[in-house]
Amino acid sequence: IADEECNVDTVSLSLDEVYQLSVRVLTSNGMADDHARAIARVITAGQRDECHSHGIYRLLVCVRSLRDGKLVGDAKPQISELSPAIVRVDAGFGYSQLAFEVGSKILVEKARKIGIAALVINNCFHFSALWPEVEAIAEQGLAALAMTPSHSWVAPAGGTKPVFGTNPIAFAWPRPGKFPFVFDFATSAIARGDIELHRRAGKDIPLGWAVDEAGQPTTNPAAALKGAMLTFGGHKGSALSAMVELLAGPLLGDLTSLESQKFDEGVGATPCHGELVLAFNPETFAAGKQADGERFAEAMFDAIVGQGARLPSQRRFEARVRSETKGVQVSAQLYSDVQALIRG
Ligand code: NDP
Ligand code: PYC
Question: Which UniProt keywords are listed (predicted)?
C-alpha cells in the first residue's frame, strides 16, 4: 500500500527510534546483536524511503520466523571462494543481511580487480527489499544486479496455481555526484507485502494482482493471499520470474520457491533459499571509454526526465530527504503490534 495503512492514526518516529525499536524487537526474541543490527539498518532504510511493505511491518514476520525455530538467529556467515570471480557466503539458515554485508565487500574487490564478479548467498532467510544492496554497490562506482526467489505464491502466465515466488530483480547504475539509477521490483504484479498491508487496512486490491482459490480474478486481499498472485506483464513477467528461480536457485544449488514453501511446512515464516548478486566494473567494460559511457548514460536519463517522466527510485529518494529531516509516520496499529513483540 503506497500510502501505508490509510485513514488511520499514525505515530511519528525518528529514524533512530525506528532503528532502536527494530533492534530491541529482534534481540528480545533471541536474535544475535550483529544480525539484529544488520536487519535494523535495512528496515530503517525501508521505512525512511517509504517502502512500507519492507519497513517495520517486516518485524512481524521476522519474529514469527524466529519463534518458529528453523531460523538460526546467531548464524555465522561462512565465506568461500568458488572461483576468482565468485564468492559464496553460506548464511547458515540465518537472515540474509549479515551474509550480504560480509560478502559484498569481497564482491566489490573482485569486480574492481577482474571486471565482473558474483556473490552467491546460500541457505538464507530473505525478507528485504533488494535496492539497499544494489544501491550500496553502485555507491562504490559499480553497476549491480540482484535477484532472489521467495515462496511459491505466484501463478505462471496462463495458469492459476502458485509456482513462482514474488521474485524481485533489482539493478543499480552509478552516477557520479548523484543518486544512482536504481530499480527494484517484484516480478509479480505487486509485492506480497503490499497485499498483506491492504488486508490489514481493510482495502480492496486492484483487479490483475491475483486470483482466488477457484482461479477467479479477485479484489479481496484475503482471497488473493489464499489463491495465487499474478505476474506483471503477463508472459514476460512469467519468464523473468522463471529466470530468477533458475539463476538464484538451482544455479546456486539452492531452493526454488516451490521448495522453499515445502521447507516452511505451513509456518508462514520468511522464505529460505539463495540469492545472486552481480557486480560490473564500468572501467573494465568500457576499456578506456568510460567517460563516453557516462555521457551517453546521462543523456539517456536527461531524455527521460526532460519529457516529464520520472526515474525509478525518484519517489524513494524524495521520501529519504523528507524522512531524514522530519522522521517517519507509522500507523498506530502497526506500531502497537510491533511493540507487542518485545519480550522481557
Ligand atoms: P513497485 O511496483 O512499488 O516499484 C517497483 C519499481 O518501479 C521501483 O523502483 C519504483 O520506484 C519504480 N516505479 C514505480 N512507479 C514508477 C513510475 N511511475 N515511473 C518510474 N518508476 C516507477 O515495487 P514492487 O511491489 O514490485 O516491489 C516492492 C519491493 O518489494 C521491492 O523493493 C522488492 O525488492 C521487494 N520484494 C522483496 C522480495 C523478497 O523476496 N525479498 C520479494 C518481492 C518483493 P519508487 O520506489 O521510486 O517508486
Ligand atoms: O513482499 O513479496 C514480498 C516478499 C516476499 C519476501 C519478502 N517480501
Answer: Oxidoreductase
